[in-house]
Design goal:
CATH class: Mainly Beta
Shape: elongated
Number of domains: 1
CATH topology: Immunoglobulin-like
Order of helices and strands: HEEEEEEEE
Strand content: 35-45%
CATH architecture: Sandwich
């Protein structure tokens, strides 16, 4: 698992799971999804008021019943992971009513940071030649708060 920055996973944090994408199934997936779309993730706290640095972001997909973790990185000082290029259906495949329902390529996004509630398996749709921006707002853990 390759990570940038100084982020670390603590023992009590859920860890992204999934098989490595470097198998024949992944090549099949790429062959079926010849388009390319991009994803930008913006992590923040306080209802998007402040960017959050060093959020570990995992991008996964489900293909033929198996989960594949295909990309991970940490957010920069602006709370952003930028230009994640992902396979998608070709835009021409969504131009007819017969194919429109099959034109979506979906990924699952998880975000982790110590001291914050994790976001697990947030679905995001990727389209050919389109940048999708996913704002992710993390909530602080209620450590030390009395009820």
């Amino acid at each position: 698992m390759t990570m940038k920055g100084e982020f670390f996973m603590t023992e009590n944090m859920p860890k992204p799971s999934g098989e490595t994408p470097f198998k024949p199934e992944y090549q099949e997936y790429i062959d079926e999804n010849k388009g390319r779309g991009s994803l930008k993730i913006q992590a923040s706290v306080a209802e998007d008021a402040f960017p959050l640095k060093d959020v570990f972001v995992d991008v996964s997909m489900i293909y033929k019943g198996k989960r594949y973790s295909i990309y991970n990185d940490t957010t920069d000082s602006s709370g952003i992971v930028n230009e994640i290029v992902l396979p998608s259906k070709l835009s021409a495949e969504s131009q007819t009513p017969q194919n429109a329902s099959d034109s979506v390529t979906q990924y699952l996004i998880s975000a982790y940071h110590p001291g914050f509630e994790p976001i697990v398996d947030c679905p995001v749709n990727i389209f050919d030649r389109v940048e999708t921006i996913l704002p992710v707002s993390l909530n602080p853990l209620g450590i030390g708060l009395e009820r």
